[in-house]
Specification:
By secondary structure, this protein is mostly beta strands. It has no helices and eleven strands. Strands 2, 4, 5, 6, 9, 10 and 11 form a seven-stranded mixed β-sheet that branches. Strand 4 and strand 5 form a beta hairpin. The radius of gyration is 13 Å and the shape is globular. 32% of the residues are buried.
Length: 117
């Protein structure tokens, strides 16, 4: 079955950096668009960034210039490099995979990111 496993979350001070990883199995990773979403308490789950099979990327306006999404098809892994983190980036971050739809068909379990001094 399809599994997406996120890692790399944690507690970081404002201005700091984290790199999230999403290891995928059970699917044709290289043909899927990989997404990162986030959900803060009491809020909806929103798109942070996405990368297509061809390497095209898109970002939420709130993270442009600070976050970078990438993928390593040889390792079946997607990454989210997060720099200049702000308290408002605090959320559970979810990895998603989509092949034929605009939104993910498969989701990971999420990883908590907390930005606080």
């Amino acid at each position: 079955q399809v599994q997406l496993v996120e890692s790399g979350g944690g507690l970081v001070q404002p201005g700091g950096s984290l790199r999230l990883s999403c290891l995928a199995s059970g699917l044709s990773f290289s043909t899927n668009t990989m997404h990162w979403y986030r959900q803060a308490p009491g809020k909806q789950r929103d798109l942070v960034a996405a990368i297509t099979s061809g390497g095209n990327t898109r970002y939420a306006d709130s993270v442009k210039g600070r976050f970078t999404i990438s993928r390593d098809n040889a390792k079946n892994t997607a990454y989210l490099q997060m720099d200049s983190l702000k308290p408002e980036d605090t959320a559970v971050y979810y990895c998603g995979a989509a092949r034929f739809s605009r939104t993910p068909s498969y989701w990971g379990q999420g990883t908590q990111v907390t930005v606080s001094s």
